[in-house]
């Protein structure tokens, strides 16, 4: 974000695009590695909250939607840094508000009410909301 802002201030839009692209690519690489690690050690993440074996077994079954949600949530934050570095905080606020209340909340509601009323449905609904935010 800082390099991008500096290059924009120097009237170097190509350099700003390059800095933004490098930042997004680095974020993407780190997130892929962290998501793979989380998928391989999903039970460890569950043990942060509880030692209950029944819950941990249930949490293991939600590995895919949990990891997709984890990835999309963090990647959406990385993408938000680009307009944020240009001072477009109001737009980021409105995009987050709309994605949350018009996509994520209804997706969680409908998926947990009409499809699966468990963590699997919850994480799938959350992933939908973060996906909409990234658009």
- Please tell me how large the radius of gyration is: 18 Å
Helix content: over 70%
Q: What class do helices, strands and sheet pairing give? A: mainly alpha
By DSSP (H or I, 4+ residues per run), the number of helices equals: 7
State the oligomer.
Answer: single chain
User: How much is the average pLDDT?
Assistant: 89
According to DSSP, the number of beta strands is: 0
Main sheet summary: none
Query: Alpha-carbon distance between the termini?
Result: 20 Å
How does the overall form come out from the CA principal axes? flat
Low-confidence segments, ≥5 residues, pLDDT <50?
Answer: none
- SSE pattern, N- to C-terminal: HHHHHHH
Share of residues in strands: under 5%
Write a structural description.
It is flat, with a radius of gyration of 18 Å. The two termini are 20 Å apart. The chain has 135 residues and is mainly alpha-helical. 21% of the residues are buried. It contains 7 helices and no strands. The mean pLDDT is 89. Helix content is 86%, strand content 0%.
List the helices and strands and how they pair.
Layout: H1 2-9, H2 13-40, H3 42-47, H4 53-61, H5 63-85, H6 89-114, H7 119-134
Helix pairs in contact: 1-2, 2-5, 5-7, 6-7
Summarize the structure.
About 85% of the residues lie in helices and about 0% in strands. The protein has about 140 residues and is mostly helical.
What are the key terms here?
mainly alpha; single chain; 135 residues
């Amino acid at each position: 974000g800082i390099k991008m802002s500096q290059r924009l201030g120097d009237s170097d839009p190509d350099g700003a695009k390059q800095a933004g692209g490098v930042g997004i690519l680095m974020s993407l690489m780190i997130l892929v590695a962290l998501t793979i690690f989380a998928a391989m050690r999903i039970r460890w993440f569950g043990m942060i909250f509880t030692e209950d074996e029944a819950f941990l077994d249930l949490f293991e079954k939600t590995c895919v939607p949990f990891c997709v949600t984890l990835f999309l949530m963090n990647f959406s934050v990385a993408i938000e840094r680009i307009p944020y570095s240009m001072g477009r905080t109001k737009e980021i606020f409105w995009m987050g508000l709309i994605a949350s209340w018009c996509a994520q909340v209804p997706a969680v509601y409908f998926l947990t009410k009409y499809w699966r009323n468990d963590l699997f449905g919850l994480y799938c609904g959350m992933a939908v909301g973060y996906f909409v935010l990234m658009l």
